[in-house]
């Protein structure tokens, strides 16, 4: 099924990708700040409603697709953060 999204101005990237990136960086910050464990964030993302349900475990998928480690060491968090900031 295709959707039309009426943009008010041109921006880099697709709207759903930009939304997903915002969620992902917030999730990384929650782990970094020791607010939540990665497993809890995965659980929250897996059991949420709406469009992103199609993605399942978002953080796990992104890390796997980007060949990052699956353990959440400080090094891993910095590696992911640096990847997306570059």
Features:
86 residues; mainly alpha; 4 helices; 55% helix; globular
| Weakly predicted, low-confidence segments | 49-56
- What is the radius of gyration computed over CA atoms, rounded to a whole number of angstroms? 14 Å
Kindly estimate the percentage of residues that lie in beta strands according to DSSP: under 5%
Largest sheet: none
End-to-end Cα distance: 33 Å
Structural class: mainly alpha
Number of alpha- plus pi-helical segments: 4
Helical content class: 40-55%
What does the model show?
It is a single chain. The protein is mostly helical. The protein has a domain at 37-86. Helix content is 55%, strand content 0%. It is built from 4 helices and no strands. The chain has helices at 15-32, 38-46, 58-65, 74-85. Helix 1 runs antiparallel to helix 4. The longest helix has 18 residues, at 15-32. The N and C termini lie far apart (33 Å).
Would you kindly provide a brief summary of this structure?
Helix content is 55%, strand content 0%.
What's the helix and strand layout?
Blueprint: H1 15-32, H2 38-46, H3 58-65, H4 74-85
Helix pairs in contact: 1-4
């Amino acid at each position: 099924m295709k959707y039309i999204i009426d943009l008010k101005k041109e921006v880099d990237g697709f709207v759903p990708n930009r939304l997903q990136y915002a969620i992902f960086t917030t999730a990384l910050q929650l782990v970094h700040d020791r607010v939540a464990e990665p497993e809890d964030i995965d659980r929250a993302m897996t059991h949420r409603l709406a469009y992103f349900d199609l993605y399942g475990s978002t953080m796990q998928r992104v890390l796997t697709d980007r060949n990052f480690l699956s353990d959440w060491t400080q090094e891993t968090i910095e590696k992911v953060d640096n990847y997306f900031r570059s």
